[in-house]
Write a structure and sequence with these properties.
Length: 245
């Protein structure tokens, strides 16, 4: 049984534009209702309203972006990408559209295009810690751990309380077999977010590779305490038990 430890991925928070209540046109009314549906999780109705807004006003940038967000939430990444591209055609400096399109490319495992879009977002929003974090994840998945670490460093410079960036940097150090630095980062992630289940799981794996089996067991047990359905922690704990520890 393989140890499954390096699955931690930052939650990709899709940036949603604000509702502009001063939109008094018919297109604005459809857009605003679409945003309301989106916030309620009714993505199909949201898409219908954003589509109607775009029929009335084909240059409605926010409607493209928010319809893309709704498609993204439904897992329809190709349509999401098409809408983010529509927003960028109208507003080439739209950092949010670059960021969200990068997330969609990432979920299609197209890491090169994801990196290009996160870089585009950073060109217009250079203080976006989440874009650095997500670009770091894409670099990590391409096996470029040093660039990943550089991006996590920048994310943490911009946001020193970014627990996910600490956790993700820990994974990159794990891949480089620098377990002490990985553990240090997991410790910091857990200081900031004591319920960070994946950080417990991954720190347990780092302890395992250092031969510190009691600490590994404690972390995996803690992960299961927080989330009894955490398959990786359960499998790792069973693997350790099979070894007699």
């Amino acid at each position: 049984m393989m140890l499954m430890m390096r699955s931690m991925k930052a939650l990709f928070a899709v940036a949603v534009g604000s509702v502009f209540t001063n939109d008094n046109t018919d297109a604005g009314a459809y857009y605003n209702r679409g945003v309301t549906y989106y916030k309620k999780g009714d993505y199909d109705r949201a898409i219908v309203d954003f589509t109607q807004a775009l029929r009335i006003d084909p240059n409605y940038i926010k409607a493209y972006r928010e319809r893309g967000n709704a498609y993204y939430k439904k897992g329809d990444y190709d349509r999401a990408i098409a809408d983010y591209s529509g927003a960028l055609r109208l507003a080439p400096n739209d950092a949010t559209a670059y960021y969200n399109r990068g997330n969609a490319y990432y979920d299609k495992w197209d890491y090169d295009r994801a990196i290009a879009d996160y870089s585009g977002a950073l060109r217009f929003a250079p203080n976006d810690a989440a874009a650095y974090n997500n670009r770091g994840i894409a670099y990590r998945n391409k096996g470029d751990y040093d660039r990943a670490i550089t991006d996590y460093n920048e994310a943490l410079r911009l946001d020193p309380d970014y627990a996910a960036a600490y956790g993700n940097r820990g994974i990159a150090y794990d891949y480089k077999e620098d377990y002490d630095r990985a553990i240090t980062d997991y410790n910091e992630a857990l200081r900031l977010d004591p319920d960070y289940t994946r950080a417990y799981n991954n720190r347990g794996a780092a302890y395992y590779y250092k031969g510190e089996y009691a600490r590994a067991r404690a972390d995996w047990e803690k992960a299961l305490q927080l989330n009894p359905n955490h398959a990786e922690a359960r499998d790792n704990l069973e693997f350790l038990q099979d070894m007699g520890y």
